Each structure stands twice: as C-alpha cells, then as structure tokens.
Amino acid sequence: MSFSRRYADCLSDPLPWLTWAVLSTGLAVSGPFGSYQHYPLPERFLFWSALVALTLTLGLALRIWFATAGLRELKRGVGLALAVAVLLTLPLWWLMRLALGDALAPTVAEVAPALFCAGLGLSAIRLGPASPVASGEARLLHRMEPAARGELISITVRDHYVDIVTSAGPSSLLMRFSDAMDETEGVPGAQVHRSHWVAWSAVTGVDREPGKLFLVLKDGSRIPVSRAHRAKVEERGLI
Predict the structure, then answer these.
(1) Nearest-angstrom CA–CA distance, 144 and 148
(2) Three-class secondary structure of residue 156 per DSSP
(3) Which residue of 30, 61, 196, 230 is 20 to 30 Å from 85, comparing CA positions?
(4) pLDDT digits over 143-185, tens only?
C-alpha cells in the first residue's frame, strides 16, 4: 500500500479527528503557559488547535513511515517519539514565543519532553490500517488495502517484504516476517518453514516428494514444511 493511500486511510478514520478535538479543547479550556489569563477562549482554541493539528499531521506521517521501516514495536514507538521531538520542538517553540511572548512562552527544554510524550502517545494509538480489529481477525489484515482483506491463507517472506495471501488475493507489505506473524493473533496457524506461515484452516492436503513435505492450500499453492517444523504438522494430524 502506498504512503499516500495509508495516510488517506488514517485521515478517514475518526480517531485522529477525535484526538485533535479532545486535545485542542482541553488545551484551550485549561490555557497552559499563561494563555488562560491573556486570551479569550475562542483565540485560545484557534491557537492550540492549530498547534495540535501541526503535531498530528507530522506525527501520523512519521507513524506510517516507522510502521513500514521493519522495526519492532518498541523501537518504532521510541523512534517516532524522538522524531516528533527533534522535528517539531523548535518550530512549536518559535510559534508559541511569537503568540505568547517571551514572558509566557515555554522554553525549548519544556517543549521537547512534551513532544516526546506526545509521540509516545501517537505510537500507542493504532490508526487507520493498523487500528484494533474484531475478535478472531488478524491485525495484519488492517495494514492492507480493504479490497485485499479476506480470510488469511499464508505469509511468505521475500527480502524485506512479506507476501500475504488471503481469499481476496495476494498483497505485499514492507515489514519483518516476525512482526507479520505476531499480527496473525486470532487466526490459528503456524510457521512451517523459515520463510512461510500458514493458516491451518487454509490447508486442504499434503504432498510428499522424496525427502520433502508440502502443504497444499486452498488457493492451490504448495508450501514446503521444513524438518524443524514438521512436528507442528504431525500434531495437527495432517501426516
């Protein structure tokens, strides 16, 4: 899925808009950094809503990039928070200094930790394609275009990508194989080869060749089973 498509999917989800509304309203009502005493509520709302929108706009873009960078969850979260703080600290400090004046504006040392915490919050919120899914449905499917979602059949690693086959067809995502398998939770299946994961419900038969074993899937593909993972197939009673 392209970056622009993923960003559009994020913006079509109500969660970022709700986040913007709640944060903007909360900051406008509370009036931090002396803005409560010096500006009426409408002006405070315009000011803080613009700053929150700027932060969320960049934060969502960074979140999508980190989600496809092949990093594990913890590294993605910390990386996103650091990127938000590095990229936005000076611009936001300058805007607050311009609007609030030197006497009221926070220092750079106060803005940076606040943005770092905001970045951690963004990394914890699953938006757009990566949003929470219904019980029994793999989170991995919500990284894919809606038209490609369906019953999960198999996952295969290819360089830095994973090829995902569902009942709706094949798709590819730039992510770690281990992360992709982690996001199959709710769909019974297993890794049967160093490069392949299969959903048990998709297995329709077994093929044997001298010294080799293959699982036949409902899409017609044949997935090799390595010796190290053969016990999983035996436990399922497939051989």
Answers:
(1) 6
(2) strand
(3) 30
(4) 887 778 889 999 999 988 999 999 988 989 988 999 999 999 8
